[in-house]
């Protein structure tokens, strides 16, 4: 199915790895010119060359920037003043004990996971409204609606994204601009893969066996009993970016493998 996205331009934040990279690839598959972002210029260049060679009809570009840094963010706006699609994917996460989370850490998570996405949205939204078309997606997490208690400093930021997304969506009434949130459950990014490998490094098991053991022991509530593939999130995000998804407005969209036990 042609998603109707050919020749659109998309900035996917944090797209050299994991979910962001998968979203960039799925968008490029649909003929979108993706702006690849991460903090390391060579790494960004490597990923965009991969995408260029796989999808030669598209023109991926280098959008290296530490997005938490306001000056670097502004330099990025100068380089790419207008885009059709913004995927606020970049985010940090770590298991932390509540007693050990100091104010600096709370602030760091708020600044990185919320204020950075807000800064990008604040800049690009007026352009999208002026162009009468746009797609904005925030990548939250199932932690936004079902905090596990294992990373309170992270869960807080992901809940905030749901509220921010809905507030911004209110500014798009009557337009072809949509703003939504996707909530992935546990997803097999490179980081997660390494964590699982190292947890069972002494055991003579295939990765699939390690994954199964991890799921049974640590995530029994997952209904798929495997990690979500980043490409699955990528395909969902691509659909949400497409003209076929224009009735999604301020929606929190779950793809969590059944982790959240409630209907809503
Ligand atoms: N993986 C999961 O199970 C899971 C589940 C639910 C939600 N999520 C959410 O999905 C998003 C992506 O997660 P992931 O696991 O795919 O992440 P990841 O593998 O850790 O990748 C993070 C990406 O962000 C870039 N990055 C980090 N800090 C940056 C900064 N300050 N400025 C620009 N780029 C930066 C990284 O590149 P450099 O380090 O080179 O800059 C990399 O490209 C996050 O928001 C996360 O909370 C993940």
UniProtKB/TrEMBL annotation:
<dbReference type="Pfam" id="PF00106">
    <property type="entry name" value="adh_short"/>
</dbReference>
<dbReference type="InterPro" id="IPR036291">
    <property type="entry name" value="NAD(P)-bd_dom_sf"/>
</dbReference>
<protein>
    <submittedName>
        <fullName>Oxidoreductase</fullName>
    </submittedName>
</protein>
<comment type="similarity">
    <text>Belongs to the short-chain dehydrogenases/reductases (SDR) family.</text>
</comment>
<dbReference type="InterPro" id="IPR050259">
    <property type="entry name" value="SDR"/>
</dbReference>
<dbReference type="InterPro" id="IPR002347">
    <property type="entry name" value="SDR_fam"/>
</dbReference>
């Amino acid at each position: 199915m042609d998603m109707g996205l050919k020749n659109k331009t998309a900035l996917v934040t944090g797209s050299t790895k994991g979910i962001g990279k998968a979203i960039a690839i799925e968008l490029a598959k649909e003929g979108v010119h993706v702006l690849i972002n991460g903090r390391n210029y060579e790494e960004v260049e490597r990923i965009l060359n991969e995408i260029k060679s796989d999808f030669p009809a598209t023109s991926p570009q280098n959008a290296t920037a530490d997005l938490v840094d306001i000056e670097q963010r502004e330099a990025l706006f100068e380089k790419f003043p207008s885009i059709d699609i913004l995927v606020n994917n970049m985010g940090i996460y770590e298991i932390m004990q509540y007693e050990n989370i100091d104010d600096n850490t709370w602030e760091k998570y708020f600044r990185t996971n919320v204020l950075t996405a807000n800064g990008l949205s604040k800049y690009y939204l007026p352009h999208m409204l002026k162009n009468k078309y746009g797609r904005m997606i925030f990548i939250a997490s199932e932690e936004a609606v079902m905090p596990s208690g294992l990373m309170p400093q992270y869960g807080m930021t992901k809940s905030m994204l749901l509220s921010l997304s809905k507030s911004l969506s209110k500014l798009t009434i009557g337009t072809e601009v949509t703003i939504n949130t996707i909530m992935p459950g546990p997803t097999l990014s490179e980081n997660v893969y390494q964590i699982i490998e190292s947890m069972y490094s002494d055991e003579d098991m295939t990765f699939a066996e390690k994954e199964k053991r991890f799921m049974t022991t640590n995530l029994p509530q997952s209904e798929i009993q495997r990690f979500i593939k980043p490409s699955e999130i990528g395909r969902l995000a691509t659909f949400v970016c497409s003209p076929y998804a224009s009735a999604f407005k301020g929606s929190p969209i779950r793809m969590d493998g059944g982790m959240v036990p409630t209907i809503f």
